[in-house]
Design brief:
By secondary structure, the chain is of the alpha/beta class. The chain has a single domain (5-234), classed as Rossmann fold (3-Layer(aba) Sandwich), CATH 3.40.50.300. The chain has helices at residues 17-31, 60-70, 79-103, 114-124, 129-140, 155-173, 185-201, 215-230, and strands at 5-10, 39-40, 51-54, 107-111, 147-152, 206-210, 233-234. Strands 3-4-1-5-6 form a five-stranded parallel sheet, with helices on both faces. The two termini are 21 Å apart. The mean pLDDT is 91.
């Protein structure tokens, strides 16, 4: 059985990742409707429902880490502590969800992965890239996505959406996940600069989608990027 296909979505908070992940999952599931034997050029069985997960979170342990690292009241977390927690979450997600699904030949779609740590802790917190990449090799077995979709709308638009979303969530269920959104403007600029650095360093893996585009326009770009790396669909 061929290894599955690992897709990660990256971008600043409020960049539209959740919406595009749902749209992509729906598109993948629609490919095999009426075609029970539907595979890509890479031998990926598109009849298997894609596995969706997120970081931090996605596991019982990860959800507890998420509640701590994203809560605005956890303002005293040291940058190294923050980074260590992100890798603890990631190691658990790989062991519990991501690697088993890839071993089954499934498509895995993950909302954030190590690029987020490099951008937010390496760039935003000024810890640098090398320590993040070293920890990824040691803690995560250097597992690499087959495709990373990097969404980069304007900083103003993404922050506005993220803060509005967090206000709705806090009002609805009391969950406060605005810790990073509350950072100063310069922090978010450093995050974006690091994301662009990653995209320039690994263009074979990272598909950068920039600008304030419509949901449909972004979805079209995402589908094109997936088709380019996954291959054409056979059996239809």
């Amino acid at each position: 059985m061929p290894r599955g296909f690992f897709i990660t979505f990256e971008g600043p908070d409020g960049s539209g990742k959740s919406t595009q992940i749902k749209r992509l999952a729906g598109w993948i599931e629609s490919l095999h409707q009426g075609f029970p034997s539907c595979t890509s050029d890479r031998g990926i069985d598109l009849g298997l429902k894609p596995v969706l997960t997120r970081q931090p979170g996605g596991t019982a342990t990860g959800d507890r880490i998420r509640a701590l690292t994203l809560d605005s009241r956890a303002a005293d977390l040291a940058p190294m502590t923050e980074m260590a927690l992100m890798f603890a979450d990631r190691a658990q997600a790989i062991a519990e969800i991501i690697q088993p699904a890839l071993d089954e030949g499934r498509i895995v779609i993950c909302d954030r992965f190590t690029d987020s740590t490099e951008a937010y802790q390496g760039g935003g917190r000024r810890l640098g890239s090398q320590i993040v990449l070293d920890l990824h090799r040691l803690v995560c077995g250097n597992l690499q996505p087959d495709l990373t979709v990097l969404l980069m709308p304007s900083l103003e638009a993404s922050l506005r959406r993220a803060r509005r979303r967090n206000e709705r969530s806090a009002a609805a269920n009391g969950q406060d996940e605005g810790r990073f959104e509350n950072e100063e403007y310069a922090f978010h600029e450093r995050v974006r600069d690091k994301y662009r650095e990653i995209a320039a360093r690994e263009p074979h893996r990272v598909e950068l989608i920039e600008g304030d585009r419509s949901i449909d326009e972004v979805h079209g770009c995402v589908v094109a990027a997936v088709e380019k790396r996954l291959g054409t669909v056979a059996g239809r």
